[in-house]
Amino acid sequence: MRVEFDRDTCIGMFQCVEEWDAFEADRDDGKADLTESEEREEGIFVREVPEGAELDAKFAARACPVDAIVVYEDGEQLVP
């Protein structure tokens, strides 16, 4: 399972931070950061979801008011 985060779309509500500790609030930029991620395209950050954190990743994606977080499993989009 992997998660993609579009930081440019993020509006800094930080609901993802409350749902999964892989997200951190960057209050200087007013955006969230996805820790241990790799920038695949400009503003798009990707990381694998560790075993045991799958539910947290899904909750973070569902909590995002602008759908900046997408969860994939085996290439299929699960959330949002």
TrEMBL record:
Record InterPro entries: Fe-S_cluster_ET (IPR051269)
UniProt keyword annotation of Metal-binding present: yes
One Pfam family it belongs to: Fer4_15
Keywords: Electron transport, Iron, Iron-sulfur, Metal-binding, Transport
Keyword tRNA-binding part of the UniProt annotation: no
Domain of life: Archaea
GO molecular function annotation: iron-sulfur cluster binding; metal ion binding
Family annotation (PANTHER family): FERREDOXIN
Protein name (record): Ferredoxin
